[in-house]
Amino acid sequence: MNPEQQMEQRGRSQWSITVFEEEYFQGKSCQFTMECQNILDRDFRKIRSIKVENGPWVGYEYPEFQGQQFVLEKGDYPCYHAWSGNSSYRTEHLLSFRPIQCAKHSDSKVSLYECEDFQGRKFELCDDYPSLQAMGWCSKEVPSIKVNSGAWVAYQYPGYRGYQYILERDRREGEFRNYNEFGTQAHTNQIQSIRRIQH
Amino acid sequence: MNPEQQMEQRGRSQWSITVFEEEYFQGKSCQFTMECQNILDRDFRKIRSIKVENGPWVGYEYPEFQGQQFVLEKGDYPCYHAWSGNSSYRTEHLLSFRPIQCAKHSDSKVSLYECEDFQGRKFELCDDYPSLQAMGWCSKEVPSIKVNSGAWVAYQYPGYRGYQYILERDRREGEFRNYNEFGTQAHTNQIQSIRRIQH
């Protein structure tokens, strides 16, 4: 498929996600093309598997987009472990989700800052970095982040593992002044890898 | 840091990894600059945390580079969950490891094939893909893979999650004819994301 065909396909496609009450796409299911604030309101007890027909989406541990965050790109997620990537804090909940509107591969820029409130030295990135330390960032922590364009996902550990923080230009005007603003579950500013979220 | 400085830094650096018997870099430790076939031979009972001073490395579940594979890029891994990314099959072992020699960001190419033994339609990649399906690959499986240059890591699930398969030009001449050749722990050809491994 050439880039033009891909663009055409993207133009046609809407966001679409199907959630299932049981693992491996079994049991009760429901397809969504827009955000869901609380899956419990749809008489689901739990989400145990997911098919993303068109993404990207972000899933949240709790209703109303609270708690742990999980980036959900197109593909099959047959069980909780497929989207969590963080097993030390096993909640196994995913109760709300929404499309990521501003994901746009061709134009993504983010600035990392050495201190909170965008103070200290600044590092500008336009690419994916599985190891910020290999790239020259001297710490395992990132105190504040400004998203200039696009949508990004930052991770606690190298190689895109551990807690995920979805950072979008369209939310908070792209400004994340300290780790409390990364997400409601964040209790450290430890970030060791970061990548763009693509359509 | 500009690209020249980065290159210079890379030129100076050797592979280096420090393993610890306890979580959070506690207890007995040992630094390596070359491969380790079996950490038990060094009177370690287990590896519970890792600092990669210079990478990339690949860790294995069992001695002599057998079992589950874990890509280890520069950074801190305070516990098992930091490198596993796959919690459904909890082994918590990492008993051997080696440097990835052919990781080279500027020149990485891989071909995915629709069927085993490099048959069927071919897809050539030079970039990272968090979702192969979003890129146009119609299946959640990749039956065979040829690495033309560099080193890659393929993952079971989208977004770089689940089982990891390290695929290098320098091993098997880059030829992986079926899922048995992806790794000793592979029992399916399910691959939904792939990325380059960088220095």
Automatic annotation (TrEMBL), chains A, B:
Record Pfam families: Crystall
InterPro entries referenced in this protein's UniProt entry, alphabetically: Beta/Gamma-Crystallin (IPR050252), Beta/gamma_crystallin (IPR001064), G_crystallin-like (IPR011024)
All copies of domain Beta/gamma crystallin 'Greek key', residue ranges: 55-101, 108-149, 150-198
Family affiliation: Belongs to the beta/gamma-crystallin family.
Record organism: Pangasianodon hypophthalmus
Alphabetized SUPFAM superfamilies for the sequence: gamma-Crystallin-like
Subunit structure as annotated in this protein's UniProt entry: Homo/heterodimer, or complexes of higher-order. The structure of beta-crystallin oligomers seems to be stabilized through interactions between the N-terminal arms.
Protein known as: Beta-crystallin A2
Its biological purpose: Crystallins are the dominant structural components of the vertebrate eye lens.
UniProt KW keywords: Eye lens protein, Repeat
